[in-house]
Amino acid sequence: MDTSLLICDHSYHYKPFNHNLKGGLQNYLFRLQTEGSCEVTSHGKEYTLSGGDLLLLRPGDDYQLTVKEPDHKGRLSSGDYYLFCEGPWIDAWWKRRNRPVANRIGLDDKLIGLWRNLLLEKRRGSLEEDAELKDVLLRSLCLYIDRAITENVQADRKGTATLKLKRFIEEHATVTFKLEEAASYAGLSLSRAVRLFKEHYGKTMIQYAIEIRLKAAVEQIKYSELTLEHIAETCGFASYSYFHRVFRAHFGVSPLEYRLK
């Protein structure tokens, strides 16, 4: 395998905690703060991490983690997912780009889902097929981390709310949803959501949803034997006639002509 997942787990701290590796890490460390807060020191710099902050360290980096006393007795001070890994693929991935030590990426459900799956697979055992699955999941997590970091940069430039709108549309495009729902998810009024999305992405939310629906439809036309009427329905179009009209306007041919080609 090109990657090796050494440790993958989650931790919760209800009391003060201190972990110090002045001699330097032996492997890569990924740590996602999910609850509470902590302080990390590395290379003489201090970082305060709260929910949604991702820490990335490489072999040789010094590392000191400090969790302070909670404000109230019995209250959680800090919660996080963490993993240690190594391998040629991880080395190559690390060298592709410069990543900050501390990254504000938010608590993305998909990224956390990948992390949880890795944790569960690590606990299952050491069969060859399990190792292969862990390898794929770890690579997926690394690539998803890069996407999250990139989207964070975009959010700084375009605003977190517009990025939330974009994510909502991507997740709900193939089902019926109202623009008011997208606006509410982003914490915006409908009028402001409509204006901001058009300003930042150069298209309306409906236009973006249609683009995603058409991409999904094309994939199903190419690689499935589903009827065109069923494809229209599963890809979020209200009726086949509407799907037919939008498809022809975008591709210059009808869905049937596209399939026959």
Using only CA atoms, what is the Rg? 23 Å
SSE run = EEEEEEEHEHHHHHHHHH
Largest sheet: 8 strands, antiparallel
**Beta-strand fraction estimate:** 15-25%
Q: Runs with pLDDT <50, length 5+?
A: none
> Termini, distance in Å?
41 Å
- The number of helical runs is 10
Tell me, briefly, the overall form. Answer: globular
Query: Helices and strands: which structural class?
Result: alpha+beta
Describe the model.
With 261 residues, this protein is an alpha+beta fold. Helix content is 50%, strand content 22%. The chain is built from 10 helices and 8 strands. Strands 1, 2, 3, 4, 5, 6, 7 and 8 form an 8-stranded antiparallel beta sheet that branches. Helix 2 packs antiparallel against helix 3, helix 4 packs parallel to helix 7 and helix 5 crosses helix 6. The longest helix has 31 residues, at 128-158. The radius of gyration is 23 Å and the shape is globular. The protein starts with a strand and ends with a helix.
Structure summarized in a few sentences:
With 261 residues, this protein is of the alpha+beta class.
Summarize the SSE layout with pairings.
Elements: E1 4-13, E2 17-21, E3 28-42, E4 45-50, E5 53-57, E6 63-67, E7 78-86, H1 88-95, E8 102-104, H2 109-124, H3 128-158, H4 160-172, H5 179-185, H6 190-201, H7 205-223, H8 228-234, H9 240-251, H10 255-260
Antiparallel strand pairs: 1-7, 2-6, 3-4, 3-5, 3-6, 3-7, 5-8
